[in-house]
Amino acid sequence: MGRRSLLVAAGWVATVAVATLIGLGAIRLVGESITGTPGGVRSEAEIERALASPEPAPTGATGGGSAAPGTTGAAPSASPGVRRSFATDGGTAVAECGADGVRLVSWAPAQGYRVRDVDRGPDDDVEVTFAGSTRQYELKVRCIGSEPVAVADD
Q1: How open is the CA angle 109-110-114, to the nearest 5 degrees?
Q2: CA–CA separation, 51 and 41 (whole Å)
């Protein structure tokens, strides 16, 4: 091996070592946001407390007899069923009943559809319209008791 080949190899090793040190320094500088658990590591007792008091979340869609044609609703959750999800072929929505009336919490069009109109409330009734290239679905929701229910359009 000639002197020139030895210098090239030594330069390459030095470049790799410097690049590795810069990378390690950057990771150390950024800290746990890249390599660690967000919020730190939780103890077993903290996990048990968090699981013992679940937050209310929208439930999945199931068949419901009181839903408007073309829609299905989810069964009420175990907690006071004030939040409920609804699905049509055009998209899904989550509504909840409160002291001011019903309001849409969230909505999302299905693939191939877009949201054409939204009345998010709170009001006596709320609605969202999902429009596709050949069809349109309107979901209208009211509170009956303290539970949101899909109703036929007036």
Answers
A1: 45
A2: 16
Q: Which band of pLDDT confidence, cut at 50, 70 and 90, is reported for residue 36?
A: low
- What are the angstrom distances between the C-alpha of 12 and each of 1, 15, 16, 25, 27? 16, 5, 6, 20, 23
Nearest to 153 by CA among 92, 70, 65: 70
> pTM to 2 decimals?
0.48
Contact (Cβ atoms closer than 8 angstroms) between residue 126 and residue 68: no
Q: What is the reported pLDDT for 76?
A: 40
Which of these ranges, 51-55, 57-61, 134-138, has the smallest mean pLDDT?
Answer: 57-61
The predicted pLDDT at position 28 comes to 72
Query: Where does 31-137 have alpha helices with state H?
Result: 32-35, 44-52
Whether the Cβ atoms of residue 88 and residue 130 lie closer than 8 Å to each other: yes
Cα–Cα dist 112/46, whole Å: 43
